[in-house]
Amino acid sequence: MPTPEQYWQMLEQKTQQEVGWIQQRMTWLATFQGLLFATFGLLYQTSAGTGLHPPNKAILFAIAAVGLLTCICIMAGLHSASTALGQIKGEWERLVADESTRMEFPEFRTEKKARLIGMISSWGPTVLFAFAWLAIMLFTWIS
C-alpha cells in the first residue's frame, strides 16, 4: 500500500499535469486567435474600399464563427481541467484519512483562492475573445 508521501507526490504530479494542460490551451488560444484576427483584419482592409459584398461578408463571418467556436472549445477544456483540479483535494482526503498526517504535507494549489486566480487568468482572455468575435459577427451580419 502506498505511503501518504507517495499519494501526495502522485496528486502533485496530477496537479502539475492539469496546470500544464491549461497553459497549453492558453498558448493555443492566443496563437490561433492572433492568426484569425490578423486574417480577419487583412480581409476586412482589402474589402473596405469596395464595400462588404456577400462573398467577402460570408468569409469574414466564417472567420469570426471559427474564432468563437475555438473559444467555446477552449472553455470546455478549461472547465474539465478546473473540475479535475477541484477533485484533487477530495482525493487526497479520501486516500489519507488521518487529518494530522495530511497536515504534515504542503497544501495543494487547488485551494479556492489559487483556483480562483487561475480561473480568472485563463477564463478572462477566453471570454474576452469570445465577446470580441460575437461583436464582429454581429457587425459583419448587419453591415
Characterise this structure:
By secondary structure, the protein is mainly alpha-helical. It has one domain. Helices cover about 85% and strands about 0% of the residues. It has four helices and no strands. Helix 1 (about 5-50) packs antiparallel against helix 2 (about 55-95) and helix 2 (about 55-95) packs antiparallel against helix 4. The model has no long low-confidence stretch (mean pLDDT about 85).
> How much β-strand is present in the residues?
under 5%
Counted by DSSP, the helix tally is 4
Q: Shape from CA axes?
A: rod-shaped
What's the N-to-C terminus distance? 67 Å
DSSP helix fraction: over 70%
N to C succession of SSEs: HHHH
Uncertain residue segments: none
Could you describe the largest sheet, including whether it forms a barrel? none
Oligomeric state of the chains in view: single chain
Domain count, please report it: 1
Gist?
The chain has 143 residues and is an all-alpha fold. The protein has helices at residues 4-48, 54-95, 99-102, 112-142.
Features:
143 residues, mainly alpha, 4 helices, 85% helix
Question: How is the secondary structure organized here?
Answer:
Elements: H1 4-48, H2 54-95, H3 99-102, H4 112-142
Helix pairs in contact: 1-2, 2-4
